[in-house]
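Fill-in record for Cell wall enzyme ebsB.
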Amino acid sequence: MLRIYVDAATKGNPGPSGGGIVLVGDHLHEQIHVPLGECSNHEAEFKVFIKALQLTIEKKLNNQTVVIHSDSKIVVQTIEKQHAKNLLFQPYLKTFQQLEQNFALLLVKWLPENQNKGADSLARQALQKYQ
């Protein structure tokens, strides 16, 4: 099983944004920070979520049970309901639906912010580095 933790940080809303991704599995613990460009805080959360799934596929880690954790209720609820009222979020949902087909089993779980400190720290590092 692979666990992925994602979080985003944005300076201003919208503003420069960074994302943090933590991959944890058998003999694997990888920490990644990525620039997300200029976007709103919610868009940044979607972007890092999608980036984490793309990285998982690129690294060929998608042939096992994958649980992706986010502290963004908007992202998790959009995925769970398979519906985005906000027009800005619809492309992210569509991309998720396309990526999901590449996974043996993909579970999306919300977790409280205080349990996502690793990904949060990486997101803040990315924000500082890529401003």
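KEY FINDING: Residues 84 and 90 are 5 Å apart (CA to CA).
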